[in-house]
Amino acid sequence: MPAHIGAKLYSGFDDPCGMLHDCHRRIERFLAVLCEVLANERAKTKTRAFLSGPPDPSTYMGPPQNSPETQPRELTPKKP
After folding, report:
1. What are the residues whose beta carbons fall under 8 Å from the beta carbon of 69, sequence distance 6 or more?
2. Which of 12, 27, 30, 73 has the fewest Cβ atoms within 10 Å of its own Cβ atom?
3. First to last CA, the chain
4. 46 vs 5, 36, 51, 52, 53, CA distance in Å?
5. What's the pTM?
6. pLDDT tens digits for 18-71?
């Protein structure tokens, strides 16, 4: 934890409630930094996804409807 000139001193063991308060403030600052890092990473991920182009339809759709295995079969055999 960096020291700031002129800042109040942290509480010691003679003031347990003050220690708890100081610890709580440190945790709040740490969580704020984590939230900022997470927001930046999400923005980077969205930017990368946007720049990579549109998604490939074959990843979320089945085979094309004109493929041989999806052609309808004839119910009666062809006459020669």
Report:
1. 63
2. 73
3. 89
4. 40, 16, 9, 10, 11
5. 0.48
6. 999 999 999 999 999 999 999 998 888 888 877 777 766 666 666 666 655 555
